[in-house]
Specification:
Blueprint: H1 2-11, H2 21-55, H3 64-83, H4 86-96, H5 102-109, H6 113-131
Length: 136
Amino acid sequence: LAHDTFLRLLAKPVVREFNGFPQARAWLRTAASGLCVDLWRRREIERAWLQTLAAQPEPLAPSPEDRALVVETLLQIGTMLSRLSQKAAAAFIMAQVDGMPYRAIAAQLSVSERMVKKYIAQAMLQCALIEAGRVD
């Protein structure tokens, strides 16, 4: 802490001059006290973070098969989205990923709620075709 205090003094010199040793000592004590409080706060935050991490279950790495399935699914979704119009794909993503209600999607896309329902239906049809193995 003393080292950090002197570094703070050297990096940002005090604008006023000290009238003597007692005034300089008081400034150093105040600066060191502030650094000490900062250190305690930082350690408390680190301790809380480590406790939170320790309470979490160990992360499970997906198996190579699971990773391959996820990649394959993402590729299928990408292919499905590419078959849709831009607005239909955007509506599907807003509804499924962002969880937006149809009214908000309609406002965002400048279309009616009924059109949003049609876009979602088109996307769901493509999903069903993929599930049935009818589409690559």
